[in-house]
Specification:
There is one protein chain. The protein is α/β, with parallel strands linked by helices. The chain folds into four domains: about 10-185, Periplasmic binding protein-like II (D-Maltodextrin-Binding Protein, domain 2, 3-Layer(aba) Sandwich); about 290-465, Histidine kinase-like ATPase, C-terminal domain (Heat Shock Protein 90), CATH 3.30.565.10; about 475-610, Rossmann fold (3-Layer(aba) Sandwich), CATH 3.40.50; about 620-695, no CATH class. The protein is built from 23 helices and 25 strands. Strands 10, 11, 12, 13, 16, 17 and 18 form a seven-stranded mixed beta sheet that branches. The chain has a five-stranded mixed beta sheet with strand order 5-4-6-3-7, with helices on one face. A five-stranded parallel beta sheet has the order 21-20-22-23-24, with helices on both faces. Strand 23 (about 560-565), helix 16 (about 570-580) and strand 24 (about 585) form a beta-alpha-beta unit. The termini are far apart.
Length: about 700
């Protein structure tokens, strides 16, 4: 642009040359207008401004009371004052003098200076065309001072009688016009280039959008496929595994048939494991897997993991060793299910590939974050942070260096693994779980020298009181007498699934009714008034979601327990089921003890269990605790804890004793249980006798 005044707004998107003309701004009024000294005298007066010029923006901030009257061009401003449409206008003296003279507006006068900065006239170009701006500045520098003064005098004469020298103006306009033509040429060139680039970019964006939509559609199709496959595969497995459990309870089944049933059950469990691994990896990739942290007994988890593989290692004549450090905390807060699955996956691989020698599992903990009170004594708080270090070593064939990088990739098996059963997903899932739990897993291996897998996880230390003691899955043989007759409604469109539940529940004394769809369930529930409904969620005619809502809408249906039976493998299905009105959620295929535990939880059903000779009674547990209660065991504790125990026992401070016992429980749970028995019986002297304090204090019972 060849004639532009610089403003802050314009400077954001344009570069300006050095000014080539500067004109003072003056106030123009009618000849008969009152005397005006400056802009302050124009408050509450109508002043003409050009819409697209900068004059109004210069005035409005400092003189907001001026009433603007907008026109399109500078000549229209002066014309508005001449015709009385506005009381004044502001214009540079050159333009004002020229227009007044040209249009013979004898009724106007230049009333006063405006006090605003001079109008600086310059060239302007796009702010990304700095080269053009430099060219224009050099062109302006070629105009001499005499030429500038001549132009100024022609536009701003001392008197109104003025006649422009059009030859000079024409010469100047030709120069400016040449520059303008160059600018326009460059502008057109860049506009065409930018237009082409924008067109290409839009095409790329459209292609990316289509690819994104295709990926989202594929992901939705995959999720829907997995959900359907989960239901279709797990539903028949529910019948297979379930009826194998029913047959295993038979006392009349010959031993060879018992073995056949066991094979059927194990095969079904193995198939379920493979299906679960594929679905689990899909859930992880889709971000649908979360941690479910609970407080549990780490020692018990390790013992159960060891027991799970004892039979297999004996069959292969291998050794299996579990070694845990003395300072390993017994009770922790973490995701028990995922930690168990990690250990099972690693142990399963190690035992599967090891033909001679054995497998060793070592578990250690790093120093927990503990605090001291003002006396320097250790304060054990529930849920102190700690890192567990697991190492699993085998004497198997090892892994070649070129296969180590892919050992944690999904569906990838080593050369030795291809000869074995499996999906190649166990290690991939284990690594994802470990990373979710705040650590990572590594492997060291050489062909012929075995393999060493290591992983760390972040956990929180808990106390024994936070742990829900798990009962062993004992075989139920009957209902305890003296209970009401429990009415159970089974709703499932598949006869095999209904028959399985009937086989499990009816022999124990439950009263059973069946419905093959949600509509029948609503009708039967109204008259039968069941205590509990086992509700399948996918059925024809009416599904379980709608049936549950209708049953809940009745007065009788408010108190009935409704437990969903679903073959879905996705955890988010739980929230959908519970929001429909179900009280709980049991996934197919279920285990026998899971079914009965759920009924005990929601109805309070009492069972008679088959006696298990291997289960220790309470006296046996107490005897084991008493064996742990020795002076040697107390002396082996950290000196600070022993001193705290001694001081608490001398003072007879029950709260202090309990705090010290909880600190001991982290490293020696049996000793802590035995000390708790003494503290509960106020046997402080017995506690004191176990500590290495002076002989004069031993045996004293008054505190």
């Amino acid at each position: 642009m060849a004639c532009v005044s610089e403003t802050p707004e314009r400077k954001k998107y344009m570069n300006f040359t050095q000014p080539y003309l500067s004109f003072p701004l003056v106030i123009i009024t009618a000849n008969d207008a009152p005397f005006i000294r400056g802009l302050a005298d124009l408050n509450q007066k109508k002043v003409a401004f050009a819409e697209f010029l900068a004059d109004h923006s210069r005035v409005k901030d400092n003189f907001p009371d001026i009433i603007p009257y907008f026109v399109r061009t500078p000549p229209e401003k002066i014309e508005a004052v001449s015709l009385g449409k506005a009381e004044a206008c502001i214009e540079n003296i050159a333009t004002a003098s020229y227009l007044i003279q040209k249009n013979n507006l004898a009724n106007l006068k230049i009333a006063a200076p405006s006090g605003l900065p001079n109008t600086e006239i310059a060239f302007a170009s796009r702010n990304d065309w700095s080269l053009l701006n430099n060219i224009l500045n050099k062109a302006l520098e070629s105009v001499t001072k005499e030429e500038q003064d001549a132009i100024y005098k022609k536009w701003v004469p001392v008197r109104f009688e003025y006649k422009a020298d059009w030859s000079e103006i024409l010469k100047w306009l030709i120069s400016v016009g040449s520059v303008f033509v160059i600018i326009m040429g460059i502008t057109l060139f860049w506009n065409r280039k930018l237009s082409k680039e924008i067109s290409v970019r839009k095409q790329i964006e459209k292609a990316l959008q289509k690819a994104k939509e295709a990926a989202e559609a594929a992901n939705r199709a995959k999720s829907e496929f997995l959900a359907n496959m989960s239901h279709e595969l797990r539903t028949p497995l529910n019948a297979t595994i379930g009826f194998a459990q029913v047959m295993a309870r038979s006392q009349t089944l010959p031993p060879e048939h018992q073995e056949n049933v066991s094979i059927i059950r194990r095969s079904g469990e193995h198939l379920l494991t493979l299906i679960n691994q594929v679905l689990e990896l899909s859930k992880i990739e889709a971000g649908r897997t979360t941690l479910n942290e609970t407080v549990f007994d780490l020692y018990q988890l390790l013992d159960e993991s060891e027991d799970l593989f004892l039979l297999r290692v004996k069959e292969k004549n291998l050794r299996l060793m579990f070694d845990r450090s003395p300072d390993l905390p017994q009770y922790i807060r973490s995701d028990e299910v995922k930690l168990r699955q990690i250990l099972i996956n690693l142990l399963n691989n190690a035992i599967k590939f090891t033909q001679e020698g054995g497998v060793a599992v070592r578990v250690q903990s790093s120093k927990c974050r503990m605090q001291n009170d003002k006396y320097g004594r250790i304060i054990i708080r529930p849920f102190s942070l700690c890192t567990l270090h697991f190492a699993l070593e085998d004497t198997g064939p090892g892994i070649s260096p070129d296969e180590l990088e892919g050992v944690f990739k999904a569906f990838v098996q080593t050369s030795g693994g291809r000869a074995q059963e499996g999906t190649g997903l166990g290690l991939a899932i284990s690594r994802k779980f470990v990373q979710m739990m705040g650590g990572d897993i590594t492997v060291q291996s050489e062909p012929g020298k075995g393999s060493l897998f290591k992983f760390d996880i972040q956990v929180e230390i808990a106390d024994a009181g936070s742990v829900n003691i798990k009962q062993s899955a004992r075989h139920i043989i009957a209902l305890q007498p003296g209970q009401i007759v429990w009415r159970i409604l089974i709703v499932d469109d598949r006869p095999d699934n209904r028959r399985l539940l009937v086989k499990l529940l009816a022999p124990l004394g439950f009263d059973i009714r069946e419905a093959e769809n949600g509509q029948e369930a609503v009708e039967i529930s109204e008259s039968y008034e069941p205590h509990l409904i086992w509700m399948d969620m996918r059925m024809p005619v009416m599904d379980g979601y709608e049936a549950t809502k209708r049953i809940r809408s009745t007065i009788k249906g408010q108190s009935v327990a409704i437990i969903a039976l679903t073959a879905s493998a996705f955890e988010e299905e739980r929230s959908v089921v519970l929001s429909a009105g179900c009280d709980d959620f049991l996934r197919k295929p279920f285990r026998e003890h899971e079914l009965f535990d759920m009924m005990k939880k929601h109805l309070g059903v009492c069972y008679i269990y088959e006696k298990d000779e291997n289960l220790p009674d309470s006296e046996q547990i107490k005897e084991e605790n008493r064996k742990a209660l020795t002076a040697e065991a107390v002396s082996a504790l950290p000196p600070g804890i022993v001193k705290d125990l001694e001081n608490a026992a001398i003072r007879g401070n029950m709260d202090a004793i309990s705090a010290v016992i909880e600190a001991i429980r982290v490293s020696n749970a049996p000793l802590a249980d035995a000390l708790t028995d003494l503290a509960d019986g106020f046997q402080y002297a017995e506690i004191l006798n176990l500590t290495p304090q002076p002989p004069s204090l031993k045996g004293k019972g008054e505190f």
